[in-house]
């Protein structure tokens, strides 16, 4: 089977689905290929910065129908339990990937985006077109290909991307719980070898998602042992975990997470979301960045098909420039902050500094977030 389209999107996470919605809204013929069915839980902090809200409204996404929590405050804790509070400069909302991804999926279909559940086996670029082959022997021909295959994929290996060749030392663990936690608060609690984000999503559910260095984690037999011996040393985390009831049979995990630099273009494929760059979760901005990157790519692709952008070279140059302008400094700041928190001496000094000068924390947050998206249409 062979089928033609204007754009083929590989991956149906936040960035891929957002591209599908946007480009279909602009009347382009879009095929999105995603191996998993919807809805599905994913390892994620599940906090979305309000900087992208104007864009979500333009896409006609009815996020309020999903009953997200409104989050305005941050609680930050050192491993020894010392706390700092601040008001988030922009604020945001809490929504599960289970609910949000499914909402985007339904909107993409409504807009006319064709979604195919299959596994991509190969992407070939030749004679200025892409040929995408799947495990079900399907073949898709398109002028533009978007890579939205997430943090780590077999295609990163096939493309021999630099980050995939380096050791990725991070493991993430996520669970949903019932318990007592403020609706308007996102908590960031540090422990030896990592940190945990806690916030409410829809239906009064608490999302707890932590990132840990695998060298720290592997000293223990299982997740329960690790949590008891390491995470519970932070009194705030111990109280939250021990007074909450898990809703999953077992936590979700993902390993080999890399925060190394990536490139926004690989073999003429436009990378979006985590495929283009993964920000440290402590910044609380990964979901917003994924959606924002989809906006940038979709606008430029639309200009390409309306001949406002005259060539593939111009398209790729403009996307790379725009991606770097919007996200490169944020990613660099995230890596720097994470390196400080992983060093016990430095993290103690940072905590002391923030306690003495509490106005610094909102300023640091601003360096990992953008201004509210402005729309020119």
What would you note in describing this structure?
The structure is a single chain. With 377 residues, the protein is of the alpha/beta class. It has a domain at 2-41 and 95-166 and 258-342: FAD/NAD(P)-binding domain (3-Layer(bba) Sandwich). The chain is 34% helix and 28% strand. It has eleven helices and 17 strands. It has helices spanning 14-25, 53-58, 97-111, 154-158, 214-217, 223-229, 235-242, 286-305, 312-342, 344-356, 360-367; strands spanning 2-10, 30-33, 47-49, 69-77, 83-94, 114-116, 120-126, 129-134, 139-147, 170-178, 185-191, 194-200, 206-213, 245-246, 252-257, 265-266, 269-271. It is globular, with a radius of gyration of 21 Å.
Topology:
Elements: E1 2-10, H1 14-25, E2 30-33, E3 47-49, H2 53-58, E4 69-77, E5 83-94, H3 97-111, E6 114-116, E7 120-126, E8 129-134, E9 139-147, H4 154-158, E10 170-178, E11 185-191, E12 194-200, E13 206-213, H5 214-217, H6 223-229, H7 235-242, E14 245-246, E15 252-257, E16 265-266, E17 269-271, H8 286-305, H9 312-342, H10 344-356, H11 360-367
Parallel strand pairs: 1-2, 1-9, 2-6, 4-11, 9-17
Antiparallel strand pairs: 3-5, 4-5, 7-8, 8-9, 10-13, 10-14, 10-15, 11-12, 12-13, 16-17
Helix pairs in contact: 1-3, 1-8, 8-9
């Amino acid at each position: 089977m062979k089928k033609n389209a204007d754009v083929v999107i590989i991956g149906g996470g936040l960035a891929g689905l957002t591209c599908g919605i946007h480009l279909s809204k602009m009347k382009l013929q879009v095929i999105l290929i995603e191996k998993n069915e919807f809805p599905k839980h994913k390892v994620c902090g599940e906090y979305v910065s309000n900087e992208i809200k104007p864009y979500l409204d333009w896409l006609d996404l009815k996020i309020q129908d999903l009953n997200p929590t409104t989050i305005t405050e941050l609680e930050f804790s050192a491993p020894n339990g010392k706390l700092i509070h601040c008001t988030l400069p922009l604020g945001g909302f809490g929504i599960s990937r289970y609910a949000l991804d499914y909402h985007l999926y339904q909107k993409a279909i409504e807009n006319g985006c064709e979604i195919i559940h299959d596994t991509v086996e190969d992407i070939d670029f030749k004679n200025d077109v892409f040929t995408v082959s799947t495990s079900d022997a399907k073949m898709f021909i398109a002028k533009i290909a978007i890579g939205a295959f997430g943090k780590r994929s077999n295609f990163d290996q096939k493309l021999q991307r630099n980050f995939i060749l380096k050791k990725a030392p991070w493991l993430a663990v996520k669970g949903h719980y019932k318990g007592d936690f403020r609706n308007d608060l996102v908590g960031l609690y540090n422990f030896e070898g990592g940190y945990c984000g806690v916030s409410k999503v829809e239906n009064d559910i608490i999302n707890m998602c932590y990132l840990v260095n695998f060298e720290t984690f592997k000293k223990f037999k299982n997740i329960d042992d690790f949590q008891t011996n390491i995470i519970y040393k932070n009194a705030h985390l111990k109280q939250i975990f021990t007074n909450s009831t898990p809703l999953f049979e077992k936590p979700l995990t993902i390993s080999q997470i890399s925060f190394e630099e990536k490139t926004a273009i690989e073999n003429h494929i436009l990378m979006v979301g985590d495929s283009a760059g993964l920000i440290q979760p402590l910044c609380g901005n990964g979901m917003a960045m994924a959606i924002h990157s989809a906006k940038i790519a979709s606008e430029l692709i639309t200009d390409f098909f309306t001949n406002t952008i005259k060539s593939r070279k111009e398209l790729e140059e403009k996307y790379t420039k725009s991606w770097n302008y919007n996200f490169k400094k944020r990613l660099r700041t995230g890596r720097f902050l994470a390196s400080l928190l992983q060093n016990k001496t430095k993290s103690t000094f940072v905590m002391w500094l923030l306690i003495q000068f509490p106005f610094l924390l909102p300023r640091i947050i601003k360096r990992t977030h953008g201004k509210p998206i402005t729309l020119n249409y």
